[in-house]
Each structure stands twice: as C-alpha cells, then as structure tokens.
Amino acid sequence: MAVRPPQQGDDEPDSLEFGIAALTPYLSEANLTFPATTDEIVRALGDPAIPYDANGNAVALSEALAAVNRSQFDTQRELLDALHPVLEEYRESGGGLFSQLRALLPF
User: Fold this and answer.
1) Mean model confidence pLDDT for the chain
2) In the chain, how long is the greatest CA-to-CA distance?
3) How far is 48 from 84, CA to CA, in rounded Å?
4) Mean pLDDT, to the nearest integer, of 37-65?
C-alpha cells in the first residue's frame, strides 16, 4: 500500500484565528478612521462573521457590537478592548442555545 505524498501549496492555514485576532485583518484592510461609530465600523468592514472559537463558530460583528453597549470608539485599540470580553463570553457559552441546537443536528 502506498501513502499519498503531502500536497504542495495547501491553502489551509497553519492556525485558525478567532476572537479579536480574527477581526484585525478586516480593520487593516478597511478604510476606517477613528473615532468611529458602531454603524460606521459595520459599514466599513461589511459586517463580517467573526469566529469566536477554534471550531469556527462565528458571530456577526454587528451583533457583537450591540452587546458592547457603546455607540462610538475613539481608537482601534478601544474597539478591540471592548469586543474582547463579548467574544470571550460567546466562546465560553458556546454561542448560546441556537448554536448548541445546531451542533446537535446532523446537517
């Protein structure tokens, strides 16, 4: 029996970024200046789904920002610092009841 050789040029990442680390590339590529409102941030970034755990579960940026209960951020660091505990809560809770039910379904 032969073993297939490893694929060259594999597009799979070596690691999966989640939480605020997954949001950072969006911020780097966006035409966004601070101070910025939550609406401006969502529009500039396109409301991406932000993975909050290593399993790839994600939450929309707009939903995470709604949980922050702030409408404006003076700096990018302030935004990331505010989102960190929200994304951690999603990670620790498994995303809530809907995500847990979806995980139980076979499709």
Assistant:
1) 81
2) 62
3) 16
4) 93
8 A C-beta contact, residue 16 and residue 54: yes
Tokens at 68, concatenated: 């922050």
> Bridge partners of 50?
59
- For tokens 């499709």, what's the residue? 107
User: How many structural domains does the chain have?
Assistant: 1
Q: Is residue 5 part of a domain?
A: no
Q: Which residues span the domain enclosing 34?
A: 20-104
- Within a domain: residue 34? yes
Using CA atoms of 50, 76, 27, 47 in order, give the dihedral in degrees to the nearest 10: 50
Half-sphere exposure of 20 (CA within 13 A, CB side): 14
